[in-house]
Design goal:
1 helix, 60% strand, single chain, six-stranded antiparallel beta barrel
């Protein structure tokens, strides 16, 4: 299953980051992406703080995900900046009806 969209909640802050994640056998792998100088700066700082640690994030339209930031890629020119973070993780099990 492919999870694609815009809107990632980190803690209490909703960010306009894009996400492209593929789910296989209950595991997620893919990228979070940010555009612009401000967005890239915030994503880079978020990566530095959480690299290698499992973090709970909200994915707009898909709910919670537990993701571990694994790598950071940045591209900057005089006019534009973008960043992407490679992540791996899972979607937590949803509680079913109690019997």
């Amino acid at each position: 299953m492919l999870l694609r969209g815009r809107g990632v909640t980190t803690g209490e802050e909703k960010r306009p980051w894009r996400f492209l994640l593929e789910e296989r056998q209950g595991r997620l792998a893919g990228e979070l992406q940010a555009d612009g100088w401000s967005g890239s700066f915030k994503m880079n700082a978020w990566f530095e703080k959480h690299a290698g640690k499992e973090v709970e994030l909200g994915l707009e339209g898909f709910g919670r995900a537990l993701l571990t930031p694994k790598g950071l890629r940045t591209h900057e020119t005089g006019h534009h900046s973008e960043s992407s973070v490679k992540v791996e993780g899972s979607l937590p099990l949803r509680d079913g009806p109690k019997v």
